[in-house]
Amino acid sequence: MSKKWQIKVPGSTANLGPGFDSIGLGLSLYLTLDVTLQDEWEFMHIGDNVPSDTTVDTHLIYTIAQQVAQQYNTTLPPCKVEMTSELPLARGIGSSAAAIVGAIELANILGDLKLSQQDKLNISSQIEGHPDNATASVLGGLTISSMDEAGIVDTLHIQEMDAAFVVFIPNIELKTAASRGVLPEHLKRSYAVRASANANMLAASLIAKDYERIGRYMEADLFHEPFRANLIPAYKEIREAAKKAGAYGTALSGAGPTLISMIPLALSEQFTSSMQQQFPEHQVVVTTASPSGSTVTAY
């Protein structure tokens, strides 16, 4: 058994508009865990975007890894985990899902669990409560998923997207629970039919890689964005400016407060520069779909 590993997990965006709780996209922004066996558990946080007020016993990665180990009736040997992240916390780009997937990978290697990809999809989605971010972090690329009542995930996976993605990250946090609190408990049938049709068209356009249509339906959500828009800094202004600058479409990234635009690859530099000038209070970052999902490298 090796004594050192590196676990690398892509962050993600969820929904892309009306693909509520079911569509995810892995982003080339990563959580990295450098793991070394030692006599006791230790977590070392390096750089920004990592929690500052946690102990070993309350650390999300530790608690999830122990939960998975208990599920498989095994004990994990202690280790040091050095954690770095390109994913700001509570901004809607999958920091918690990446941590959960990283914890499952940690339990898998330390406990020699021999988990399959399907196992990782099921466990991570069950913990998250829905399969959008989790499946994208496990597999990378684009995922369109459902999870049944038994917690079994079914996923269509598209590895490559011929587009770039620009995230607009404001300097505020927005917890998913707070963002879910503004959603209505019930929708009228006619409204739900229109919302479902838009979601179906988004999924079909993504599979067909019809980018003009993808952009149109990214901006046609009726499930959550109309209710969350007032929580999001410069929501309307960013959508309008991005469209004028050549974006296919712009949507909330997950529950927000980050927004994400899909743009032609050739526009990446020009678009990002223009948006950063127009929205200096946001961090504007260009990225692409992650070429792979979570990876483990032994040393």
TrEMBL record:
Which residues belong to any copy of the GHMP kinase C-terminal domain?
Answer: 203-280
Q: Which reaction does it catalyse?
A: L-homoserine + ATP = O-phospho-L-homoserine + ADP + H(+)
Q: Could you tell me one molecular function GO term of this UniProt entry?
A: homoserine kinase activity
Q: Per the UniProt record, which EC number(s) apply here?
A: 2.7.1.39
Tell me any Pfam family this protein matches: GHMP_kinases_C
* A biological process term (GO) from this entry: threonine biosynthetic process
Kindly list the GO CC terms recorded for this protein. cytoplasm
| Pathway of action | Amino-acid biosynthesis; L-threonine biosynthesis; L-threonine from L-aspartate: step 4/5
What are the alphabetically sorted keywords of the record?
A: Amino-acid biosynthesis, ATP-binding, Cytoplasm, Kinase, Nucleotide-binding, Threonine biosynthesis, Transferase
Record bears the keyword Kinase: yes
Domain GHMP kinase N-terminal stretches? 60-141
What domain of life does the UniProt record list for this protein's source?
A: Bacteria
Top-tier EC class:
transferase
Q: Which Gene3D superfamilies match?
A: 3.30.230.10, GHMP kinase, C-terminal domain (3.30.70.890)
Does Amino-acid biosynthesis count among this protein's keywords? yes
Q: Which residues form the signal peptide?
A: none
In which compartments does the protein localize?
Cytoplasm
The Swiss-Prot or TrEMBL record describes its family as follows: Belongs to the GHMP kinase family. Homoserine kinase subfamily.
Function as written in the Swiss-Prot or TrEMBL entry: Catalyzes the ATP-dependent phosphorylation of L-homoserine to L-homoserine phosphate.
Protein name as catalogued:
Homoserine kinase
Q: Which organism is it from?
A: Solibacillus silvestris (strain StLB046)
What lineage is this protein's organism placed in?
Bacteria, Bacillati, Bacillota, Bacilli, Bacillales
Designated gene of the protein: thrB
